[in-house]
Design goal:
- The complex is a heterodimer of chains A (about 100) and B (about 350).
- With about 100 residues, chain A is an alpha+beta fold.
- Chain A is built from three helices and five strands, in the order E-E-E-E-H-H-H-E.
- The longest helix of chain B is centred in the first third of the chain and has 14 residues.
- In chain B, about 35% of the residues lie in helices and about 10% in strands.
- The chains are: A alpha+beta (about 100), B alpha/beta (about 350).
- At the A-B interface, strand 2 and strand 4 of A face helix 1 of B.
Amino acid sequence: MSDMKTSEVYIKPSRDIAARMMADEMVIMSVRNSRVFSLNPTASRIWSAADGATPLREIVARTLVSEFEVDADTAYRDAVELVEELAQEGILLLADHPIGPEAG
Amino acid sequence: MTTILENVNAKAIQLGIPLGVHLDVTWRCNERCVHCYLDHDDQGELSYDEIEGLLVQMADAGVFLLTISGGEPMLRKDIFPIIRRARELTFNVKLKTNAILIKEKEAALIRSLGVDTVQISVYSHRPEVHDAITKVPGSLKRTISAIRFLVAQNLKVTIANVIMKQTRYDYSGVQALAAELGANFTIDPTITPHINGDRSLLALNVSREDLRDIMNDKTIAGQTEDQFVAVAPGSDEDDLDNIPCSAGHSAAYVSPYGDVYPCVQFPLPSGNVRQQKFIDIWKYSPQLEEVRSIRTRDLPVCSTCVHSSGCTRCPGLAYMEGNMRGPSTADCEKSFARTGIPSANMLLRGVSQKADS
C-alpha cells in the first residue's frame, strides 16, 4: 500500500471477527486466534464507521473532528496509527482503494 | 490474571447485558447417549424465520457469545443458514455437535462461515465404550473422522470428555487422542438430571473416591470445566456479596421451542420468545429478576460453608435439587474431592452419605 499520510485509506472489519458494542466500547474477538480486543469510545466510533467505502480521513472528520473539536491532522495521524495496529492484528482490512463486500 | 473477556463479562453483569446465550436449535438427536438429559421428540421447533428474528433481537440486546447446540444441531436442514445469519450479525459462534454428520464439505463450510470453536463430545478412545454410550455403532469412528476434517480446516476443536462410571478410566486415552488429532481437551465430571426432573441419571456419576482421584490428577490440571483448588479458601464478608454464577446475570439459554431459562443447566421457565421479545424477557421476567437478586449471603447453607468462595456451586443443579438457594450436592462432592474438606451441606447430611448415588 502507498504512503497512508498522502493517499486515501479505506478500512473494513475482517470477516474473521466477532464484534459487539457494549455501552460505548466495541468488543472484538478474532476467530483466528480467539484474541479479544476492547476499543475505547473514540476507536469504537472509527470501527463502527469502517464500511470499506468511506475514506478514513472522512470518517475522522465526521466522527471525531466535528464532535470533539480536535485538530484534524493530529486526529488523522492517531487514527492511522490505530488502524495499522488493528490491521496487524488481522481484525481490520486496510487498502488504498474501496473494499468491497466480498473481501475479508 | 484477569482477561479482557473476564472484564467484559464483569461489565456485562454491571450493565445487565446478556453477553452469552446458549441456543439449542433442536433437541432431536442421531445418538441416544445414556446420560442425556433431553427429550428428543420434536415438540414444535422454532422455524428458521423465528430463529432469524431471535438472532436479530439478541444482537440488539448485546449478546456476543452464541453457543449453537442441541440435540444434534446438524440435523437441522437450515443449520448453515442459521450459522451464516449469526455470523452476519457478528456473533462469536461456538458449535456443539457430535459431528457424525460432518464430512469434508461441511467442515469447509463451517470454516468459511467463521465459527470460532467446535466442541465435540468423545466419551472414550475405545470404540466399544464410546459407541455403547451413544448407542450408535461406528459413532466414534465417524466423530474422529469429522475432527480430522475440522482440524484440517484450521478450526479450533475442543474434545469434551464427560466422566461417568463407564468412562472412569478413559480420560487419559481421550486426552492422548485429542493431542494426536490436534484438538483441545476438557473433561466434565458432572452428570445433569433429566430436564423433566428425573434424577435417575445421577446414578451414572463416578464414586466419591474416583472423583477425588480424578480431581487431583495433575496430568489434567486446568483441563476440567471446573478450576482446581488445592485448599479451600476461607470466605470473607466481600465474598458473601458475590453473585453465585453468571446464569441470568450475563448468560441465558433458549430452547428449540423458544423457552428462555437462566442457563441450559437451570431449567427455570422465564418466558418464551414466541410470546415476548427476548429483551423484555431478559429485563423484566420475574424469574430472572429473582435469580439476579440472589447473593452468596442469601444461601442459607452455602453462605456458612468453608468452600463458599472457591466452590463451583451451580444454582441450576441446586434448583433441580429443589431449591435455587440451596446447595448443589454435585458441587459439594467436587469441593470435597479437591480438598478433602467436607462442605457445610455434607456435614448437615452426614459426610458418609453421598446423595444421589
